[in-house]
Specification:
It is a single chain. By secondary structure, the chain is mainly α. Helix content is 57%, strand content 0%.
């Protein structure tokens, strides 16, 4: 998920490279401009699938890296994988508050949490 976040930020053209028709004048963000409901946010959307998938894969990759490649002792690999993935998801949603046309979504966080839970049972929990 971190890689996807970095690529999405780096893939945006600088404002000077944008055509005049797409430029907007940015106004300072005040409390009155921050809204958590700017556009319809559906539970079943492609965005939620990507949040779930990215969290699921990040938990598995972080756990494998810390447990098998770095050889951390238990319970550190699980804590790092779960806590790190949750931190990335919450940070991404907080960053969404800053941009124009972007919005904070509790449903995105719920999809992140679901991906983390399924990732825990798929990669970390021993049955």
């Amino acid at each position: 998920m971190t890689l996807l976040l970095v690529l999405s930020i780096l893939g945006q053209p600088p404002p000077a490279a944008m055509p005049e028709s797409l430029r907007t004048t940015q106004k300072p963000v005040g409390i009155e401009r921050i809204s958590v409901h700017r556009q319809p946010d559906r539970w079943l959307a492609m965005d939620k699938f990507w949040h779930f998938s990215a969290s699921f894969v990040t938990v598995g990759a972080a756990y494998h890296l810390s447990a098998n490649r770095v050889n951390m002792q238990s319970p550190w690999p699980a804590s790092l994988a779960l806590g790190g993935t949750l931190t990335v998801g919450v940070t991404k949603e907080l960053c969404d508050l800053a941009g124009p046309g972007r919005h904070f979504s509790w449903k995105d966080l719920a999809a992140d949490a679901a991906g983390i839970c399924v990732g825990y049972f798929a990669f970390i929990h021993r049955f």
